[in-house]
Amino acid sequence: MKELVQKLRKYEIRIRKAITTQMQGDFHSVFKGTGLEFDDVRAYQYGDDVRSIDWNVSAKGHGTFVKTYREEKEQSVFLMLDVSASQAIGTGKQKKLEVGKEICGVLALSAARQQSQIGIICISDQKEKYIKPAKGIEQAYTIIKALHELKPDSLKTNLASGIKLTLDIIKRRSIILLISDFIDVNYEKELAMLAKRHDLIVLQLMDVREKKMPPMGIVPVLDKESGRTIWMNTSGEEFQKRYFAQHTENQSKIMRICQKYQANYLAIMANEDYVNQLVNLFRLRNKSTKKSA
Q: What is the pTM of this model?
């Protein structure tokens, strides 16, 4: 546990130093959100930005109204980690789930140092672990310890129910990081709802074999979630085409949803150094927030 915390601290320092250097001293927060939250509506005045018009209120026929905002005094960060069996796969040194846990630990430490509220929910096809958002370094250590000790009760996946659970728990607009390999179906509607209500960051964990599988002939393939073994001809052209087309379509679907609702998306390979990828993501978020401010 001590070695794990030291490792995560090193990663956190790398992330903070890299972003600060690239932003040339103009960096404010790893978890920089919009900085504003909805407050009220008022009558439209000449010179107001038409993009701030509240069309629902204006449609009632009592005039044209614009939304007003107030500065957020406290940034809340919530982690969603998929801990189902498909995450327990990895070609290199680390499995997808281990990488996901590490990322959660690094982000928990970063949020704690920036005085942000930080909480986490671990999901399979049920709630595996929930830690209510709170501030401070002790909260970060609580999250890291819980992830280190976690042994999921279920092997299955149900992203839709996990997202619904999060929507029920987190009412106030927050930065939500959803970390999963997204090997599931029928979760698109719930993902769109999450992106609409919150400042969403999607981290899709991938294994190299999901993008490139060598032809090995007819081999037994274990479905970790169902426990069934299926024999597949991995050398067949039809299998290769269908397998990778399905994976590519799934990734494209997630990216389309993120683009539509202005959520951030990042694909992370389990066998690669994820720190630089996270650095680039938060640098882009900081720049885009600065432009919109």
A: 0.74
